[in-house]
Specification:
Helix content is 61%, strand content 6%. The protein has 124 residues and is mainly alpha-helical. Strands 1-2 form a two-stranded antiparallel ribbon. The longest helix is centred in the C-terminal third of the chain and has 26 residues.
């Protein structure tokens, strides 16, 4: 599991961990049943507080991405298709909001933005 922490990011460290683990699960890089590093191990590797790592794991568990088994560790949860779809929609909404904000600042019209999105969609 690769996690990169940015000290210049506006996001708290636990959110950086959470979003990167979710992205690895959504992409299939981490699969159901895969073990995550222990809280202390990850904290040591990233040179951060155990409390920060614990918060990230708790958030991942709360959101249904991780299951913690006392005495054994944390594992990637079997994913509910609806949960994956909902998370993808949430991430897409965040990114599209940034695009809309940039378009408004730059004087790009709604129609131009829709046209750009359609062109990008067709490129895939």
């Amino acid at each position: 599991m690769d996690i990169l922490i940015s000290n210049t990011s506006g996001k708290p460290i636990y959110e950086q961990i959470t979003s990167q683990v979710k992205a690895q699960i959504l992409s299939g890089e981490l699969k159901a049943g895969d073990a995550l590093p222990g809280i202390r191990t990850l904290a040591k590797e990233l040179r951060i507080s155990v409390i920060t790592t614990k918060r990230a794991y708790e958030d991942l568990e709360r959101d249904g991405f991780v299951v913690t088994v006392p005495g054994k560790g944390s594992f990637v949860a079997a994913q509910n298709v609806e949960l994956l779809h909902e998370e993808a929609l949430r991430q897409t909404e965040d990114i599209l909001q940034q695009a809309v904000d940039a378009a408004r600042r730059g004087g790009v019209t709604r129609e131009e933005l829709f046209q750009q999105l359609s062109l990008l969609w067709e490129e895939e």
